[in-house]
């Protein structure tokens, strides 16, 4: 299903997106050396509840997972990149942490992910991975607008990732979003320009470039959810929810949004 939201629903999406951005910003501040991943999950649950919102993850049970996810935020450390299930693990200095969060507020969902290095260390390889996904995300957003096609966004994202020398996995990518978290159209992290669905005002997309340093192959943890690089290499993931507007694309999942 491809869902086109009304202007009133897009206004709700702005509030949901701001909530997601604010929660991720708070979690980033609290992600210190020694912080337990289960505490990050607990704090997320509290912030979602206090906002009167609901988690898109806790009861999420797609065909590729093992039962309901059962947690409120994805926490992926170092070689983990997607669907990182929180566990009893304390963060160490230099860990590359990805937080991925989706919530629904007033019936509209928003989804975002951030990667960053914990503590004082700034390993060059980690920083380059993170900066590359952020540049790819910016390129995808810049390519979005009414009349553009999904392939234009995929091509823009993939060009940045490929030019930086990283292999691209095509199993998971961006997606439509609206009254539910995962919808059509699928947005691959590489593609051919001029192909695919033509974007229209009112369409919401979650764009999410993610990479692994030296492989495109994933392996799944025993928890049935956490996806890691097959070689144990570092990974990174950046994501924003955007709304297609009459004259471009609006990023919804930035922290601190206030109504005009």
Automatic annotation (TrEMBL):
<feature type="binding site">
    <location>
        <position position="175"/>
    </location>
    <ligand>
        <name>a divalent metal cation 2</name>
    </ligand>
</feature>
<dbReference type="InterPro" id="IPR000994">
    <property type="entry name" value="Pept_M24"/>
</dbReference>
<comment type="similarity">
    <text>Belongs to the peptidase M24A family. Methionine aminopeptidase type 1 subfamily.</text>
</comment>
<dbReference type="GO" id="GO:0004239">
    <property type="term" value="F:initiator methionyl aminopeptidase activity"/>
</dbReference>
<dbReference type="InterPro" id="IPR001714">
    <property type="entry name" value="Pept_M24_MAP"/>
</dbReference>
<keyword id="KW-0031">Aminopeptidase</keyword>
<keyword id="KW-0479">Metal-binding</keyword>
<feature type="binding site">
    <location>
        <position position="83"/>
    </location>
    <ligand>
        <name>substrate</name>
    </ligand>
</feature>
<dbReference type="GO" id="GO:0006508">
    <property type="term" value="P:proteolysis"/>
</dbReference>
<comment type="function">
    <text>Removes the N-terminal methionine from nascent proteins. The N-terminal methionine is often cleaved when the second residue in the primary sequence is small and uncharged (Met-Ala-, Cys, Gly, Pro, Ser, Thr, or Val). Requires deformylation of the N(alpha)-formylated initiator methionine before it can be hydrolyzed.</text>
</comment>
<feature type="binding site">
    <location>
        <position position="239"/>
    </location>
    <ligand>
        <name>a divalent metal cation 1</name>
    </ligand>
</feature>
<dbReference type="GO" id="GO:0005829">
    <property type="term" value="C:cytosol"/>
</dbReference>
<feature type="binding site">
    <location>
        <position position="239"/>
    </location>
    <ligand>
        <name>a divalent metal cation 2</name>
    </ligand>
</feature>
<feature type="binding site">
    <location>
        <position position="208"/>
    </location>
    <ligand>
        <name>a divalent metal cation 2</name>
    </ligand>
</feature>
<dbReference type="InterPro" id="IPR002467">
    <property type="entry name" value="Pept_M24A_MAP1"/>
</dbReference>
<feature type="binding site">
    <location>
        <position position="111"/>
    </location>
    <ligand>
        <name>a divalent metal cation 1</name>
    </ligand>
</feature>
<dbReference type="InterPro" id="IPR036005">
    <property type="entry name" value="Creatinase/aminopeptidase-like"/>
</dbReference>
<keyword id="KW-0645">Protease</keyword>
<comment type="subunit">
    <text>Monomer.</text>
</comment>
<keyword id="KW-0378">Hydrolase</keyword>
<protein>
    <recommendedName>
        <fullName>Methionine aminopeptidase</fullName>
        <ecNumber>3.4.11.18</ecNumber>
    </recommendedName>
</protein>
<feature type="domain" description="Peptidase M24">
    <location>
        <begin position="12"/>
        <end position="246"/>
    </location>
</feature>
<dbReference type="GO" id="GO:0070006">
    <property type="term" value="F:metalloaminopeptidase activity"/>
</dbReference>
<feature type="binding site">
    <location>
        <position position="111"/>
    </location>
    <ligand>
        <name>a divalent metal cation 2</name>
    </ligand>
</feature>
<dbReference type="Pfam" id="PF00557">
    <property type="entry name" value="Peptidase_M24"/>
</dbReference>
<dbReference type="GO" id="GO:0046872">
    <property type="term" value="F:metal ion binding"/>
</dbReference>
<feature type="binding site">
    <location>
        <position position="182"/>
    </location>
    <ligand>
        <name>substrate</name>
    </ligand>
</feature>
<feature type="binding site">
    <location>
        <position position="100"/>
    </location>
    <ligand>
        <name>a divalent metal cation 1</name>
    </ligand>
</feature>
């Amino acid at each position: 299903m491809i869902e086109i939201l009304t202007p009133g629903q897009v206004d709700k999406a702005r509030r949901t997106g701001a909530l997601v951005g604010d929660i991720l910003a708070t979690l980033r501040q609290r992600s210190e050396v020694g912080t337990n991943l289960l505490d990050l999950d607990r704090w997320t649950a509290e912030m979602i509840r206090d906002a009167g919102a609901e988690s898109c993850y806790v009861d999420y049970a797609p065909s590729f997972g093992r039962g309901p996810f059962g947690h409120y935020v994805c926490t992926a450390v170092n070689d983990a990149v997607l669907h990182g299930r929180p566990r009893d693990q304390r963060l160490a200095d230099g860990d590359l942490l990805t937080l991925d969060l989706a919530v629904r507020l007033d019936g509209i969902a928003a989804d975002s992910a951030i990667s960053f290095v914990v503590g004082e260390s700034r390993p060059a390889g980690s920083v380059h991975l993170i900066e590359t996904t952020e540049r790819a995300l910016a390129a995808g957003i810049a390519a979005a607008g009414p009349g553009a096609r999904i392939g234009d966004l995929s091509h823009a994202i993939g060009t940045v990732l490929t030019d930086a020398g990283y292999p691209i996995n095509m199993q998971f990518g961006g997606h439509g979003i609206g009254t539910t978290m995962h919808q059509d159209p699928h947005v691959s992290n590489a593609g051919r320009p001029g192909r695919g669905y033509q974007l229209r005002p009112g369409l919401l997309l979650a764009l999410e470039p993610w990479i692994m340093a030296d492989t495109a192959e994933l392996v799944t943890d025993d928890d049935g959810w956490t996806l890691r690089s097959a070689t144990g290499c570092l990974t990174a993931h950046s994501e924003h929810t955007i709304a297609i507007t009459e004259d471009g694309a609006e990023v919804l999942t930035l922290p601190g949004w206030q109504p005009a």
